[in-house]
Automatic annotation (TrEMBL), chain A:
It comes from the Bacteria. SMART domains: CheW. Pfam families: CheW. This is Purine-binding chemotaxis protein CheW. Residues 4-145 form the CheW-like domain.
Automatic annotation (TrEMBL), chain B:
This is Chemotaxis protein CheA. It comes from the Bacteria. The lineage of its organism: Bacteria, Bacillati, Bacillota, Bacilli, Bacillales. It is an enzyme of class 2 (transferase). Residues 289-299 have a biased composition (Basic and acidic residues). Residues 284-310 are annotated as: Disordered. Its EC number is 2.7.13.3. Residues 300-310 have a biased composition (Polar residues). Residues 1-103 form the HPt domain. Keywords: ATP-binding, Chemotaxis, Kinase, Nucleotide-binding, Phosphoprotein, Transferase, Two-component regulatory system. CDD domains: CheA_reg, HATPase_CheA-like, HPT. It comes from Paenibacillus arenosi. The keyword Phosphoprotein applies. Residues 313-563 form the Histidine kinase domain.
Length: 153, 697
């Protein structure tokens, strides 16, 4: 018996991505962000999420995609995973779908400009939609970014 | 029975009892002849045994049981405390602590205690003292058991006189049912019933023990009665849960020969079910079922109703889960944020009734805040109380004599600080004993008393708590520290000559000083002191050292009262808002562009008092896009200080002073250079809190 999962679907550049619903705390509209100096460029700062200070990152920036202007479709998805609470700025969050864990296939090297290691897999929904499942552990991994920055410096 | 619900209560109380045991053992070590202390220790051990047995921690129970046997002999003057007994008892306490800690961590609390149990048993049997023959001890033990049932000169004369006056003297033995839950209450009812017939002369065990339920199922009474045997017997038997009543009418001969008779009976009695004798005589493993169930009932009761023994001295307190207090604190901080928002709104709307209400709300919430802060305050005793034991062991292992004096253990500190301060203090104390206080020979040679004194003081001053660790040891050798500092490149020789002692001692906290081979060079100071300093600094405190060669050294740790709410100055850099803790601000001011000097390397300096200090540009450090102080004709400055270093921060505009709630930036942004956290302002926006310590490096 395959595992049924619920997935929050969001848009980034031209692709649709998915995060398991239990890892998503809330989805917020764009809100004032306080810039935090001296940190990674894709960290846009921190927001006040009902009394809790939460850092937010631009997911485009995190994946090395060109950053876009924020508009009224822009959403902040607050995820809670690996004991970290982080907001992802995405181009839009459309819906929540049910799918079967079996539908997830191993990702190709690069999907929509995003490296495979950030991905858990790719799922075909209704034969036409392609949903890219994120590997949150890697997306939230700081060590690798720090190493990269040391190399550049 | 599902005992899980009692587990946390068990752990709390077990820790309390262990702590009490430790404290009283130390007390007893100072006055080994005080039986009063032994009684207290015995009671704690006894309660602990009962609790452990109820919860099914057999090893805990058997070990405490053996300790109890030793203590029982001591309190009955059968055994004199000596070093060996103290050491064994302390070892047992350590083992108990380990087991309780294991249980707390989800373990089974099982541990091999056989060697300690064996040495405790050898103390009880007297084997550890070779000159005492086993038989003699056996005999004295037997004597002890029955000494309780014997009557003394005074009691005998009362009994004799009563008989002569025509009263009945009864020897009553009451046995309660084993299922009886409130034995003390039953005993009370029995005494109540007897009260109408006459006078109780003596009880075994003594009345106060009975009141505290320190008996198993039975007790005996010498009673002078005006009524007959049958009447008394009926009244007692009418009380429920009484298993049996035996009454013996005593003649004057009986009374006269009572003690001899009892002695003769003793052997036979030992084999009978005389429960209290059995407890001491039987080994822990072969505890008789009767004892056990009695203990369980006792423990059950104490688990449910808290330690009943010392009810009288307890304050009216309740235990609250720390997490609930944290939640309360978080809720309060959110309320403070809303309060600030309301204040802003009231200012905009300008309606008198609204303003008044908001002001009232502000007052109430300020009171509320101070109360919640107080709730979170914990006496520093919870940290200090483990030190006496540690000092004792350490001094012993180093063959030094140390008089450890704690003052101000009731000084209160925020729990967040309390949790963190233990390790640094342990470090400083160990250092003081290891490297500060000299060996006995050295002390005598230096004309000092053999016993060194180690003072641990805590006190409040302003918004800070000070903790001093002072010893009268050999002090720090300035020259040795300087030599090392110069060698390590921390300072050059020219500068070194002009440094104050205070500055020199700060080198001890440099990380280069903490390796082992350098320790011996500089009289041992500096083992991990860098770690101590880092920890204390991270708590927003600092540490200074005072020392006089030959007279001793004092480490003074200064800590903030609380970490979660602080007074801060809010300021602006362009459209970004920041906060900086008031505690590190010396003053604020204004400098004109032409007053700013440039030294080579582009560093800007300004005149301040008699000297020049660096002017730091926050806007360039933080990479602000909308503002740069370099373009201003007049620059607002905040002068900050950390220890002896002073600097000016250039800011755009002051907003004002405010109480802010410190919030972490979240796990993802663990450490951002120059930022110590964030706070939420009245308008709901997040402002970052500048870390002045990081800027003054």
């Amino acid at each position: 018996m395959a595992e049924e999962i619920k997935v929050v679907v969001f848009k980034l550049a031209h692709e649709e991505y998915g995060i398991e619903v239990e890892k998503v705390k809330t989805i917020e509209r764009m809100m004032p962000i306080t810039r935090v100096p001296k940190t990674f460029t894709f960290i846009k700062g921190v927001v006040n999420l009902r009394g809790v200070v939460v850092p937010v990152m631009d997911l485009r920036g995190r994946f090395g995609l060109p950053e876009a202007e924020y508009d009224d479709q822009t959403r902040i998805i607050i995820v809670n995973s690996h004991e970290m609470e982080v907001g992802f700025i995405v181009d839009g969050a459309s819906d929540v779908i049910d799918m079967n864990a079996e539908q997830i296939e191993a990702p190709p090297e690069v999907v929509g400009g995003v490296k495979a290691k950030y991905l858990r897999g790719v799922a075909k929904i209704n034969d036409q939609r392609l949903l890219i499942m994120l590997n949150l552990a890697e997306v939230l991994n700081r060590d690798e970014i720090i190493k990269l920055e040391e190399l550049e410096a | 029975m599902d005992l899980n619900q009692y587990l946390s209560m068990f752990l709390d109380e077990a820790n309390d009892h262990l702590q009490a045991l430790n404290e009283h053992m130390l007390e007893l070590e100072n006055s080994p002849d005080d039986v009063g202390i032994v009684q207290v220790i015995f009671r704690s051990a006894h309660t602990l045994k009962g609790m452990s047995a109820t919860m099914g921690y057999e090893d805990l129970a058997s070990l405490t049981h053996e300790m109890e046997n030793v203590l029982d002999l001591v309190r009955n003057h059968q055994l004199k405390m000596d070093e060996m007994i103290f050491d064994t008892l302390f070892k047992s306490l350590d083992a108990l602590e380990t087991m309780v800690a294991d249980i707390a961590n989800g373990g089974t609390g099982k541990s091999d205690v056989s060697s300690i149990v064996a040495s405790l048993k050898s103390i009880v049997s007297g084997d550890y003292k070779k000159e005492q023959s086993g038989v003699a001890v056996e005999a004295s033990e037997n004597e002890d058991k029955h000494a309780e049932d014997q009557i003394d000169e005074f009691q005998r004369s009362i009994l004799e006189q009563s008989i002569e006056a025509g009263m009945h003297v009864l020897y009553i033995k009451v046995t309660l049912q084993q299922t009886c839950v409130l034995k003390a209450a039953r005993a009370y009812m029995i005494f109540q019933a007897l009260g109408s017939h006459g006078e109780v002369v003596k009880t075994t065990p003594p009345a106060h023990e009975i009141e505290q339920e320190n008996f198993d199922t039975g007790f005996s009474i010498f009673f002078v009665s005006g009524s007959g045997v049958e009447q008394v017997k009926k009244d007692i038997a009418d009380i429920s849960e009484v298993e049996s009543v035996e009454i013996q009418m005593l003649t004057i001969e009986d009374v006269k020969n009572w003690n001899d008779m009892k002695d003769a009976e003793s052997q036979a009695k030992q084999e009978a079910v005389a429960a209290s004798a059995e407890v001491a005589a039987s080994s822990a493993v072969a505890e008789s079922p009767a004892d056990k169930s009695a203990d369980e009932q006792k423990a059950n009761r104490s688990v449910q109703s808290g330690s009943s023994g010392n009810k009288a001295v307890q304050n009216r307190t309740i235990r609250v889960d720390i997490e609930r207090l944290d939640v309360l604190m978080n809720l309060l901080s959110e309320m403070l944020i809303d309060r600030a928002r309301l204040e802003d709104l009231a200012l905009d709307i300008k309606r008198t009734d609204l303003t008044e209400t908001v002001e009232h709300l502000a007052r109430i919430s300020t009171d509320l805040q101070s109360i919640v802060l107080k709730l979170r305050m914990v006496p520093i005793d919870v940290v200090f109380n483990r030190f006496p034991r540690m000092i004792r062991d350490l001094a012993r292992s180093l063959n030094k004599k140390v008089d450890f004096v704690i003052t101000g253990a009731d000084t209160e500190l925020d729990r967040t600080v309390i949790d963190e301060i233990g390790d640094p203090l342990v470090h400083l104390l160990r250092n003081a004993i290891d490297h500060g206080i000299e060996s006995i020979q050295d002390r005598v040679a230096a004309g000092k008393p053999e016993t060194g004194t180690l003072n641990l003081r805590a006190y409040h001053s302003g918004n800070h708590v000070f903790i001093e660790i002072q010893e009268d040891g050999k002090g720090i050798q300035r020259e040795a520290v300087l030599k090392k500092a110069i060698k390590n490149g921390l300072v050059d020789a020219d500068k070194a000559a002009n440094m104050t002692d205070e500055q020199v001692y700060q080198f001890l906290f440099a990380s280069g000083f903490s390796t082992a081979e350098q320790v011996s060079d500089i009289s041992g100071r500096g083992v991990g002191l860098d770690v101590v300093k880092t920890k204390i600094t991270s708590l927003g405190g600092h540490v200074v050292v005072q020392s006089k060669p030959g007279q001793g050294t004092t480490f003074i740790v200064q800590l903030p009262l609380t970490l979660s709410i602080l007074s801060a100055m809010l300021f602006r850099l362009g459209d970004e808002k920041y906060a900086i803790p008031l505690t590190s601000i010396v003053e604020t001011g204004l400098v004109r562009k032409e007053e700013i000097r440039r030294v080579h390397g582009g560093m800007r300096m300004i005149d301040y008092r008699q000297g020049v200090i660096p002017l730091l540009s926050l806007s360039s450090m933080f990479g602000c896009s909308g503002y740069s102080d370099f373009e201003e004709d007049e620059v607002e400055i905040i002068i900050i200080r950390k220890g002896d270093s002073v600097a000016a921060l250039a800011v755009d505009d002051f907003i004002g002073q405010s109480e802010i709630v410190l919030k972490p930036l979240g796990n993802y942004l663990k450490s951002v250079q120059g930022i110590s956290g964030a706070t939420i302002l009245g308008d709901g926006q997040v402002a970052l809190i500048v870390d002045p310590n990081a800027l003054l490096k």
